[in-house]
Amino acid sequence: MIEDAARQGTEAGGAGATPPPGPMAMCPMAKMCEGMMKKSPSGLAAMVAGIMLIVVGALIFVEPRILVWLAAAALVLVGIMLLVMAKLIRRPGIQLRDR
Question: Structure pTM?
Fold first, then answer.
């Protein structure tokens, strides 16, 4: 796709035309993404998540009633997230109707 865009840019402008900017120059988030790719990912977050899952699994094995509380908490959090997303989705629709 990039090659096609470069070919179209050179065909349309002829030999003296400047080449179109590369994909990194066109993307507004290119510098941030480039910085993220240069850093090596830390395994600390994965280790903490793994330890937490082992601890929760052991607690559920010892006291199965904890599973009910965890499921209830997860459902409440998902419900809150859906309400927030619905509000975010409705906001642009309301602004378009007011115009």
Answer: 0.45
